[in-house]
């Protein structure tokens, strides 16, 4: 392991941007491409949004924790909540499935996360919480040095 961070915050929507900024700073040392960085921030945003909106119903009382580990060019992240949990993870991961249709949610969060991550795992227990774990390998865009 080359580096590690843990960030915990109150489950309110404005803290989604805090999580994105922290994770951007964390992976910046890898000199990621714009696309890699954008995809990674999107995964974090989706996972954090799910915790806030679905895990805690945006009650502003729960805590979301983002834990990241960098090992070489591989970054692994776990986004955890102690909220409502997911009663049927397989169903929740189906494209277009949403439990918040009244909020005009698209039901594409897990699909987006899966498409951008190299590996995605969702563990959840009803009334206990959810952990979304994902990893992504980065390919540096460092320019060759001219001597």
From TrEMBL:
Name of the featured protein: Anti-sigma F factor
Classification via InterPro entries: Anti-sigma-factor_SerPK, Anti-sigma_F, HATPase_C_sf, HATPase_dom
Gene: spoIIAB
EC number of this enzyme: 2.7.11.1
Swiss-Prot/TrEMBL keywords: ATP-binding, Kinase, Nucleotide-binding, Serine/threonine-protein kinase, Sporulation, Transferase
Species classification: Bacteria, Bacillati, Bacillota, Bacilli, Bacillales
Catalytic activity from the UniProt record: L-threonyl-[protein] + ATP = O-phospho-L-threonyl-[protein] + ADP + H(+); L-seryl-[protein] + ATP = O-phospho-L-seryl-[protein] + ADP + H(+)
Similarity comment text for this entry: Belongs to the anti-sigma-factor family.
Residues in Histidine kinase/HSP90-like ATPase domain copies: 35-140
Gene3D superfamilies per the UniProt record, alphabetical: Histidine kinase-like ATPase, C-terminal domain (3.30.565.10)
A GO molecular-function annotation: protein serine kinase activity
Organism of this sequence: Ureibacillus sinduriensis BLB-1 = JCM 15800
Source superkingdom: Bacteria
Pfam family, one: HATPase_c_2
GO biological process: asexual sporulation; negative regulation of sporulation resulting in formation of a cellular spore; sporulation resulting in formation of a cellular spore
General function of this protein: Binds to sigma F and blocks its ability to form an RNA polymerase holoenzyme (E-sigma F). Phosphorylates SpoIIAA on a serine residue. This phosphorylation may enable SpoIIAA to act as an anti-anti-sigma factor that counteracts SpoIIAB and thus releases sigma F from inhibition.
């Amino acid at each position: 392991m080359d580096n590690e961070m843990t960030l915990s915050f109150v489950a309110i929507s404005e803290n989604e941007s805090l999580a994105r900024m922290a994770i951007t700073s964390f992976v910046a040392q890898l000199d990621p491409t714009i696309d890699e960085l954008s995809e990674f921030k999107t995964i974090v945003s989706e996972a954090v949004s799910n915790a806030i909106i679905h895990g805690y119903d945006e009650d502003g009382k729960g805590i979301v924790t983002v834990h990241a580990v960098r090992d070489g060019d591989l970054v692994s992240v776990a986004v955890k909540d102690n909220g409502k949990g997911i009663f049927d993870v397989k169903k929740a991961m189906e494209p277009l499935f949403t439990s918040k249709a009244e909020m005009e949610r698209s039901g594409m969060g897990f699909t987006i996360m899966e498409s951008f991550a190299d590996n995605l795992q969702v563990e959840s227990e009803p009334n206990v919480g959810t952990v979304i774990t994902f990893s992504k390998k980065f390919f540096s865009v460092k320019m060759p040095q001219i001597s």
